[in-house]
Amino acid sequence: MIRLIWLFILTNSFLLGGVLYAQPTVRVNNEKTTVESLPDLLTLKHGEPVNSPEVWERLKRPELLHLFKNEVYGMVPDGDPIPSSIEVIEESDAAFNNKAHRIQFALDFKKGHRNLRVHILLYLPKDVFNPPVFLGYNFYGNHTVVHDDNVLVSDSWVRNNETLDVYNHKANQKSRGKRSYRWPVDKILQEGFGIATVYYGDIDPDRNDFTDGIHPFFYKEGQDEPGLNEWGSLTAWAWGLSRILDCLKGYEATADSKYILFGHSRLGKTVLWASALDQRFDMVIANNSGCGGAALFRRKNGETIQLINNRFPHWFSKSFKKYNDKEAMLPLDQHMLIALNAPRPVYIASAIKDKWADPEGEYLSAYYASPVYELYNKRGLSDRNFPDVNKPIHQTIGYHVRSGKHDVTAYDWKQFMIFAKGHLND
Ligand code: GCU
Question: What keyword terms does UniProt attach to this protein (predicted)?
């Protein structure tokens, strides 16, 4: 019998996107045994072995995608594609002291009286044609990511945040550049990468409300919220990344670029799911993604299914709620989500003080995904022991746990760029 040992309750507070929240109770299940009961990646549901990339791709991959769609994140409803148009609304070749191109696109979705505008901000180094591009959502608007007065201020609903001067859910000029410490755009450009970012709330505002964002575009008559196994916000954000990719692939200067998806925290969860769904993404980096991202549900360390469903009821499908406090009933776990990215390079990054995201659970998930990479003769993680702090591992699965807390730091970006350069041509 597995016994849960309740080790400690933290009573301090933590910053979530700059907003002060009461620190939820951090539970530590001190037994490692739970992960020994992980559902097997290399066995089909009727028991046959998965022993080649061919069997993985034809049978196991679809089986797992079906499970993740139906049991966890929810599926995008069937139907005709939503009519959309893309337009360059601003551009300059004088960004970053004349070193970069800046292009701002408006991606518009239209259906009946509904209109949803998504702003894409793209910077490209001037001396590289079709450079590899980091693509990631931001939390508070494109204008917060850089000190650049030409970046348009988002008009969508944003989470209030006193540090960023966001009140009444409207972004404003005062938050310009305030998140630039997380986005070393200048350095990224210097290293020969492009970077594209979008405010995630442009696709779906991050609140428990399904009357806004992209969801209503898919409703059948009379419907006003997603059905039992239909999409929550994480799938909506993932879907949005694919639509943004469509745009960038349709733009001459990035048509043949390679795309590295990047996401932090809830957006780290989003990117792992997005690139599992859409294999056009060449690489994925999930930073501090935790529960519903890289971390194994069955460890129940830090955030659990019940805790995440209660605090963020709109993130997953309604069908996921039946696993509240019933992790053992899940027919999958998150090593399978990571494996759905195989054989593409995937990087999982943790922070040692980010107990809420369960760093060791993130590592073990990547470790247990490795057999699928081995089917392709790629190297995943070979040591089950949790690595030392600040000792990155850069196989086709990459991993680091850095010192410090839940955040995106210069150290993280340094590793991401080294990893991208080393593995984009794998
Ligand atoms: C909360 C949430 C996490 C999430 C994080 C974030 O802490 O519980 O699951 O990753 O917010 O997105 O900042």
Answer: Hydrolase, Serine esterase, Signal
